[in-house]
Amino acid sequence: MERSTRQRAAIGAALAAAGRPLLPLEVLEAARQQVPALGIATVYRQLRQLVDEGRLRIVELPGENPRYELRGHGHHHHFQCRSCARVFDVHACPGDLGRLAPAGFMVEDHELTLYGRCRDCRPAEATDGGRPA
After folding, report:
1. Domains of the chain
2. I want to staple 59 with a disulfide (CB 3.0 to 4.6 A). Which of 21, 35, 79, 112 is the partner?
3. Is 77 helix (H, G, I), strand (E, B) or coil?
């Protein structure tokens, strides 16, 4: 049982340290820093259990494999980098999107994903007014 606990702790620590939704392979890579023998099947099994327990949330973006993030962030949205494909949390919301729905419709929930380049992938900006070089 200790091995499972160490593996589970390493997976939880990987998700917490990342501070963003991770793909299972990203979880595996980060968690192997603590448990080098960790396998992908164990990662998938633990992720599924943590979702079932309500400790993780699945982040699904159109056309993408599911990512996982810790619960407790409250309502938020996501940003996906078009260069590196990483996904980041956006802790802001445009508010009531019900005004965009057709007349007579009732919005019950929404998901919003922003796309662009993260700070690591965006082109370096020149110092002359912030315009791209």
Report:
1. 1-73 (1.10.10.10), 74-133 (3.30.1490.190)
2. 21
3. strand
